[in-house]
Design a protein that fits this description.
Elements: E1 7-13, E2 16-24, E3 29-31, E4 34-36, H1 40-43, H2 46-52, H3 54-59, E5 65-72, H4 76-94, H5 99-104
Parallel strand pairs: 3-5
Antiparallel strand pairs: 1-2, 2-5, 3-4
């Protein structure tokens, strides 16, 4: 039986979680069971696509892998950040020698910023109701 090669990485950003599988191939993309021609078809914005595939561009492995991803939660920006971290971690599993390149670009650190919770008596997290003297 042939050995099945699969490199896996999990990425999180805000409320989004991306489970990324890299398999040797020609650059096909499958997200949540649906095939896409490009990542642009899923993320809709060029800036988000560039942000998400930065690890592949930096390491020069853009057309070497087929990507199979399961993404849930968050919005488009959070999902793009989650894909980015998941790809970085999967690339480390593929080749540990890429670590200095990815680390110097800051691609191995999770962005821990989250939405601040709303407080009672306020309209939003920090916005207070308009003050009325009388």
């Amino acid at each position: 039986m042939a050995e099945f090669i699969d490199y896996y990485g999990t990425g999180r950003r805000k409320r989004a979680v991306a489970r990324v599988h890299l398999r040797p191939g020609k650059g096909q993309i499958k997200i949540n069971g649906k095939k896409y021609e490009t990542l642009q078809d899923y993320l809709m914005r060029d800036t988000l696509v560039r942000h998400a595939v930065e690890p592949l561009m930096l390491t020069g492995t853009i057309d070497r892998f087929d990507m199979v991803m399961k993404i849930h939660g968050g919005g488009m920006s959070g999902q793009a950040g989650a894909i980015r971290l998941g790809l970085s971690r999967a690339l480390l599993e593929y080749n540990a020698d890429l670590r200095p390149t990815l680390k110097s670009a800051g691609l191995l650190r999770r962005d821990e910023r989250m939405v601040e919770r709303k407080k009672y008596g306020l309209k939003k997290a920090r916005k207070s109701p308009q003050f009325s003297k009388r």
